[in-house]
Write a structure and sequence with these properties.
The chain is mostly helical. The chain folds into four domains: about 160 residues, Rossmann fold, CATH 3.40.50; about 170 residues, no CATH class; about 160 residues; about 140 residues, no CATH class. About 60% of the residues lie in helices and about 5% in strands. A five-stranded parallel beta sheet has the order 2-5-6-1-7, sandwiched between helices. Helix 8 crosses helix 9 and helix 11 runs parallel beside helix 13. The longest helix has about 30 residues.
Length: about 725
């Protein structure tokens, strides 16, 4: 197996990109090798025996460790250089740090040199052992380390012995024409005390001849740590101290933007491929465009490029087929590149999603809240970075900007599984299908099985997939496929849904077409367009309307099957003749059900529609007699009848539904199904002659049932008065008056 095959196989089994530094110059992608090589060659060419301290400054993840690896790689073949890597992370206290440092030097010399190795190793370890009890402050004041005896302290202060050891070591290195190069990394990751200990060590040993230090760290972080610990009054104390220690300060060359982009896109491509996600060219173009506009300005180090690809390697497989892949890739980009903004989005769902009502009414409070949360979300960013972040917000959350989007957009965003959809938002942040939702993968599997399953199997599957909590999303997802299903599958699905109407919640709501009940009826009706025009389609609509359960669901389906007068023929589901014939048959079904008992008692929520269809498509005389007979059976029935016509109103403060007042619209609806005189006569049997003197004013002080009856009687009286005036005017006109 070739190396490339091994790498590819490794990537398939482990999609995460390692964050390790590079050691082989042939793998240099960011022009670090020439920089490191120059440092190494400068050190190797020195003839001056004095110590030199070189600082390589760079931010986390910018490639400092790679530079140290390259320096070591270049120095390892030099016969006069002994490169030594020393990691200060491993030693928490000062005494251990000192002992370990000199032991590390001793071990490195033992491995590299053959002459008097044991002697120089012992000298170095002895030197470290003597220094261990001493704690030197950066100002040069000597303290005794805790726990050290006075005897040891006295020995440590014997500068004669220390100087003698130092002289022997320096003479040995000079005679051997050898220079020790100490490479020290990750100093900026230490805590303040540990950083202090490391620089005390360097200050203590920096005057050793034939040595060199190459220190890699973020100079801003280290300077801040030193400044905080020592001289709070001087704002530049940390920087001044570094200037005294570091003789050659070098800033890591900025990584090339194109090279960083290439590294990042390679990681993105790997994450997409290992997740088995196929992207269209349009999707790829959309991602690249918004990555460059919104994220690339924050792509400043190789490490963050790797972190981003690793974030995608985690998120994409979990949410495959459950969300829009490009939206997921962009919001994960915000999480990695703009973490404060990501948290703000996650915790302010409603503000970023907005609502369709914003299309008609400007929500000033929402606008103020949007403007209030952005400054903290974008804190610490440059002006250009803030603008880049805002461009991503405009793409991901259209309603967060000043553009208005109506309710029709919600359906489109949900169908596309976009982050801005209220049905999908939570998935992007929970990395799962939320409880109370239904998996898109489950929907796809359900639709795939349609050709193989019979009607009973399909009904069973729907019952298992849908619950009262996920009904909204379940129907919404099915509707997302309503235009794509073949004829046979459309018939199967539509028929199965029509028989399960009782499963779809139908709560009181201001916008009734948004309920799962109405949305399911719309689905069943629109599936008819996938069936060939003629007998096959007519047979389907007859089945769903005449056999659908419950009856109210069939009425709702018929409502969405009918077309308006101005609907083009190509957009109609049925011809006008077919619609009328089907409506008459539905009316016959309603008439049969009405024989079971008063509709306004047995089906109070649906009675208005039932009686209206019966009267319009068969006979008003029939409905009038039917109602009159039911009132005669029990005089109180007339009150239940009027109550069924009361509209639903919504509390301004609570937002809860309640029965509204009887209005002219309700009177007109009643008049279409029964002679108002019939209703009034039965109201007299309940309230007596008092009903004939009812007015709107008197109705306000009565019980709800009596108030409704009085309002009806008042409207009847007004109607009769107007009718009499019209008759009188017509008579006068006829007589030439």
């Amino acid at each position: 197996m070739t190396d490339s095959n091994k790498i590819e196989e490794s990537q398939q089994s482990d999609p995460y990109v390692p964050d390790g530094a590079v050691s082989d110059p042939r793998l240099d992608r960011f022009r670090r090798w020439p920089f490191a090589q120059r440092i190494a060659q400068t050190i190797a060419a020195r003839t001056d025996p004095s110590c030199i301290v070189i600082g390589v400054y760079g931010a986390w993840g910018e490639g400092k460790t790679t530079v140290l690896n390259f320096i070591q790689h270049e120095l390892r073949d030099s016969p006069t250089i002994v490169p030594v890597k020393f990691n200060p992370w491993r030693f928490g206290d000062e005494a251990t740090l000192l002992r370990s440092f000199f032991k590390t030097l001793a071990d490195a010399l033992r491995k590299s040199l053959s002459t008097k190795v044991e002697a120089v190793g012992e000298w170095l370890e002895q030197y470290g052992s003597i220094l261990t009890p001493i704690s030197l402050t950066l100002g040069g004041i000597v303290d005794v380390s805790p726990g050290e005896s006075i005897k040891q302290f006295g020995k440590a202060l014997s500068s004669v012995e220390l100087d003698a050891l130092k002289g022997r070591i320096e003479k040995f290195l000079g005679d051997a024409k050898t220079r020790v190069v100490i490479l020290m990394d990750d100093i900026d990751r230490l805590d303040k005390t540990e950083i202090n200990n490391v620089f005390k060590l360097i200050k203590l040993t920096a005057d050793f001849s034939y040595t060199a230090y190459v220190l890699a760290f973020d100079n801003r972080m280290v300077a801040a740590a030193l400044r905080e610990k020592y001289v709070a009054a001087e704002s530049d104390a940390g920087e001044s101290f570094l200037d005294k220690i570091i003789q050659v300060p070098l800033h890591l060359p900025k990584a090339d933007t194109i090279a960083l982009r290439k590294l990042c896109f390679e990681g993105v491509d790997q994450a997409v491929r290992t997740s088995s996600i196929s992207l269209t060219q349009e999707q790829v173009d959309r991602f690249v465009n918004h990555f460059i506009q919104g994220l690339e300005i924050r792509l400043q180090t190789p490490r963050i490029a790797k972190r981003y690809s690793n974030a995608l390697s985690f998120a994409l497989p979990i949410l495959k087929d459950e969300v829009d892949s490009i939206d997921l890739m962009l919001i994960e980009g915000i999480r990695v590149f703009y973490p404060k903004l990501y948290t703000t989005i996650r915790e302010n769902r409603e503000l970023f999603l907005g609502s369709s009502s914003d299309y008609l009414h400007r929500n000033d409070d929402a606008e103020k809240n949007k403007q209030a949360i952005l400054p903290s979300a974008l804190a610490g960013l440059t002006t250009k970075e803030s603008e880049a972040a805002k461009s991503l917000l405009s793409e991901l959350f259209p309603r967060f900007g000043r553009m208005r989007y109506g309710s029709d957009w919600e359906e489109q965003w949900a169908k596309q599984k976009r982050l801005t959809s209220k049905y999908y938002f939570d998935r992007f942040f929970s990395y799962a299908v939320p409880e109370g939702d239904v998996s898109d993968a489950a929907i796809e599997d359900f639709l795939t099985q349609l050709p193989k399953h019979d009607l009973q199997d399909i009904q069973t599957s729907i019952s298992q997939l849908m619950t009262s909590r996920n009904a909204d999303n379940f129907v919404l997802k099915l509707r997302g496929h309503e235009n794509d299903l073949p004829a046979e599958e459309s018939k199967k699905l539509g028929t199965a849904v029509s028989l399960l109407g009782e499963l779809f919640p139908n709560p009181e709501t201001l916008f009734s077409p948004t309920t799962p009940f109405s949305q399911a009826a719309i689905l069943v009706a629109r599936l008819a367009k996938n069936i060939p025009v003629g007998n096959e389609r007519v047979s389907y609509v007859e089945k769903i309307v005449l056999e659908g359960k419950p009856l109210a669901f069939s009425i709702e389906i018929m409502r969405w099957l009918r077309s308006g007068k101005d609907t083009p023929e190509v957009d109609r589901k049925l011809t006008e003749e077919e619609e009328n014939a089907l409506s008459r048959r539905l009316a016959e079904r309603i008439k049969t059900v009405a024989n079971e008992g008063p509709t306004y008692i047995l089906h109070p929520k649906d009675s208005v529609a039932m009686l209206s269809i019966w009267a319009h498509w068969l006979s008003r005389d029939e409905t009038s007699k039917y109602l009159s007979d039911s009132f005669s059976e029990n005089s109180q029935n007339v009150l239940a009848f009027l109550k069924a016509y009361l509209p639903t109103a919504w509390g301004m403060d609570s937002g809860l539904p309640h029965k509204g007042e009887f209005m002219r619209e309700q009177y007109d609806s009643i008049e279409r199904v029964v002679d108002p005189e019939v209703v009034l006569s039965h109201l007299r049997s309940v309230f007596g002659e008092e009903i004939d003197h009812a007015t709107f004013d008197t109705s306000r002080f009565e019980s709800p049932d009596k108030a409704t009856a009085f309002r009806f009687a008042s409207m009847y009286s007004q109607r009769q008065t107007r009718k009499g005036n019209c008759d009188f005017a017509a008579s006068c006109t006829t007589q030439g008056i």
